[in-house]
Amino acid sequence: MKALSFNGSGSEYFQIWIVNVLLTIVTMGLYYPWAKVRNHRYFHANSVLEGKNFEYHATGKQLFFGYLIAMAIFILYMVAVQVSPMGAILFPIVLFLAIPWLIWRSLKFNMRITSFSNVRFGFKGTAAAAYINFFLYPFIFLLAIYAVPIGAAVLIPALSASGSVPSWIAVVAPIAVLVSIGFAIYMFAFMKKKNVSYVIDGSRFGQGVFNTELETKKFLLITLKTLGVSIVVLTLAFALMAVLAGATVGLSTLQAGMADPAAMGPIIAVMYIGVIFASMFIIAYSVTRQRTYIYENSTLDNDIKFESTLKAKELSWVMVTNLLMIMFTFGLAFPWAKVRMARLTLENTLVSTSGGFNEYMTQKQNEESSLGEQIGDAFDVDVGLGF
Q1: What are the pLDDT digits (tens) for 51-63?
Q2: Residue 373 to residues 120, 123, 210, 255, 366: CA-CA distances in angstroms?
């Protein structure tokens, strides 16, 4: 197994980033698509495996088309909100219905304009499957979360108006809540498994086919462990913050400050920051566990294997220190933060390069030269699936 590497640096990327920011401001946002292309090209070109790098082939002109559509949608939404209250309700619903299509088009475009060692990626997933994965499953998940509260909001006033509340409510209500929570947790794991499988199984490398064999119970176990870690970490965080607050301002001052919002301000700020840092570790734990499981069960042409060695401590440390860097430099350290995250992620992404890897790449390059697929229409939205 060979790890990828990132050859860029924060100082190099800062030069690209600051020019992008200034030109985007001067052009009132119109330069953004070209800025995005420059960013992608820099990170793709510096992502290397066995001396071969990735490439990003989109142009600012292509992304500008999708950018104009996004801006038009935003303007229409603002007009709808001002003109009609009903428009403010209907417009988000229409946009929600369009999300699966946007994700599908974005996956097709982003794969097609990305290559590795002169071999293009591709995506063969269907729009119908996108609606199942990114509309139907999330809809069922939301029903699992809100069915009981909505039912209670309707049922309780009706029973109160009738003047009699059946005794079975006290028994059924807790059971309904537990079943709803249990089903929501299961549905979350099932949805994650389906979404990841849709993206990976639909992905192509030249004529090569990616494949993954995932199980809902594994994602369910990761979800349950994450919930357990959340309880432990947040409990420890609140306990530590309480001790620090008591030691810093004194117990008597702390008790007196309970009635004085101004005195409690610094303490609340410390607690807020503590919760953010604790949440970052929880997110890092979930992401790294899922990433490890997904990579070890994914292959390319059933031959090229993958592995993730990213650990929660390493990821959470970079997340926390990146946040502090950005805060204390008023955003100017963002390029260094992004480079640090890219390097950490790539150096912990391993690919099996032994057993004829070079011959495999040569074969894919020959297939690619005869394929000649052109770049299609641009539709670029970020799809975050945690891997």
Answers
A1: 899 999 999 988 9
A2: 9, 12, 19, 70, 13
